[in-house]
Amino acid sequence: MEPIKTIRSRTVVMPGTNIDTDQIMPARFLTTTTRAGIAKHLFADWRYDRDGKPIADFILNQPAAVGCQILVAGRNIGCGSSREHAPWGLYDFGFRAVISSEIADIFKNNSLKNGLLPIVVDEATLQWLIANPGAELTIDLERCTVTLPTGTVVSFSIESFARYCLLNGVDETGYLLAQSDAIAQHEARAQ
Amino acid sequence: MPSTLFEKIWAAHQVVAETADTPAVLYVDLHLTHEVTTPQAFTMLRERGLKVRRPDRTFATMDHSTPTDTDQLFGRVPIKLVSAAKQIEQFDQNCKEFGIELLGLTHEDRGIVHIIGPELGLTQPGKTIVCGDSHTSTHGAFGALAFGIGTTEVGQVLATQCLLQRKAHSLAVNVEGALPAGVTAKDLVLAIIRKLGVSGGTGSVIEYRGSTIRALSMDERMTVCNMSIEAGARAGLVAPDETTFAYLKGRPHAPAGAAWDQALARWRTLVTDDGAVFDREIHIDATQLKPMITYGTHPGMSVAIDEAIPNLTHDVVFQKAMDYMGLTPGQHMLGQKIDAVFVGSCTNARLSDLRAAAHIMRGRQVAAGVTCLIVPGSQRIKREAEREGLDQIFIAAGAQWRESGCSMCLGMNGDLVARGAYCVSTSNRNFEGRQGIGSRTLLASPAMAAASAIAGCVADPRAMTA
């Protein structure tokens, strides 16, 4: 995985609360057996009309969304299904961070494993971000800060090992595989 | 020091303890797998030249994409959804290649992964159980620490039998008193989710406690634990007791003989000690509960059957949900016209759920214009129901009796609710489009679903069982 240190980008804002993973990636696209081309199904039911044409009003169809790497979402994004297809779709679309005041557990875990930073900020910061769509932010993963265009610096916390892996491009699966002896000892003890 | 049940299971499975810098390496006793969330994990194993570390602790079935139509299931006609057929075929190959026991498409024990784990006795107290599916929380009903994981984690468990985990917070949901007549476990869990909110359990493992929980059957405990994730919780637990042991005894994968006695002695220690402290506790009075139904687009948006939809029109998300559902604040759900009924899913497709639906549908007819799908949770349940003649009650009433699977809970196999149609569903999620693009899901118990199928509108099951 590519190391991530900083992300500088404008935001795309989806203010709704409880955006569940069924919205992010509807179930009918889960019959795929690869990750290829999954971005085209991202938010499919909000993004396309019944004829499959893009709905102009939807934020991801607007010119301002092009090239944005940061998604700001209302409280509790990613609730519901454990489908990793949701963060895969967001990443494949070009997002590298999701900011909210609360992020559902499994979605947060899945995001961390795919180079998509789940960033939890306080409610006041979230409300500022919602009120200022397209704001240019700098996310510094080393310092765990988000810098707003006003100069305000907001700290966030992120699981320390996931942060280490993301900063250094270290692969978690490799780390687990290296625990093989300890795992074998546990298996011997627990028999 | 007194410990909670969660802390005991956690401690027994830490391969490497958690530190400030690194999460715990947590051992997984049972890894359940299915066709939808595993293909990319097997690809990862192939790319890295890895094997499955413990095929004997890995178990596979097919449920999400599988047809519920008998002819398609048994290969008399091709599976209609080509992408689903391909996914099923690939899972078959993956299990063969990696030496994983699979209850394939036509196996007599196949079924929804969270139904067959308990049914076959694979699910046992004190185990850690994971699956690439958020409703893995169901298995917590046996006092197992069971939670959903993503596909990257599925790959990690296949390769190492372990996961990297931070210890969750503990949340006690204390429920006291007898459930009133006609009020079910589904109504109870919908009431719990309403009280906690859909993110109230985030970061937590719930332990359901109290006299109400102790009085529940295993089927009912599974319904409650199943929906823990709808309150955002990582997992839900019920301490094992005589009800649990009686359910497990004699199941195909349950310990037998001397091993049973040893297991029983171990399982009896799996309780929260007196004096153990939870990070948070809530209390619910079961005697005040009524049959519940959802009206919105997440499982926390529910009302008691005699209660009006609240008026929160200042809230744009609430208003969006009302627009999507085509409902009006202040309206009562009772009498709301419906188009479909689904009795099924890992929440409510066990034998007792089918009996509850059949009890109401016996000798009655599904209302004109209502499509009613009854989908048993497993092929075993299907056979047991047929032995009792439940299938004949459903068919005589005009309902469709199907092969087991996830079916209309999420419509991956093509069992869909039409755009704009209302479906009273015994499943777990009423998200926008969950049962098909534009579908409008009303979550309820099997009894309310059956009563509504007969009435052609949302109905109070108590009026039909009196």
Give a written overview of the molecule.
The complex is a heterodimer of chains A (191) and B (466). By secondary structure, chain A is α/β, with parallel strands linked by helices. Chain A has a single domain (6-190), classed as Aconitase, domain 4 (Alpha-Beta Barrel). Helices cover 31% and strands 17% of the residues of chain A. Chain A has 8 helices and 7 strands, in the order E-H-H-E-H-E-H-E-H-E-E-E-H-H-H. Chain A has helices at 21-24, 44-47, 85-93, 105-112, 123-131, 160-168, 172-177, 180-190, and strands at 6-14, 70-73, 97-100, 117-120, 136-140, 145-147, 153-155. Chain A has a 7-stranded mixed sheet. In chain A, helix 3 (85-93) links the parallel strand 2 (70-73) and strand 3 (97-100). The radius of gyration of chain A is 18 Å and the shape is globular. The N and C termini of chain A lie far apart (36 Å). The mean pLDDT of chain A is 96. In chain B, strand 3, helix 2 (39-48) and strand 4 form a beta-alpha-beta unit. Chain B is an alpha/beta fold. Chain B has a 5-stranded parallel sheet. Helices cover 32% and strands 17% of the residues of chain B. Chain B has 17 helices and 19 strands. Chain B has 3 domains: 5-165, Aconitase, domain 3, CATH 3.30.499.10; 169-288, 3-Layer(aba) Sandwich (Aconitase, Domain 2), CATH 3.40.1060; 292-465, Aconitase, domain 3, CATH 3.30.499. The N and C termini of chain B lie far apart (50 Å).
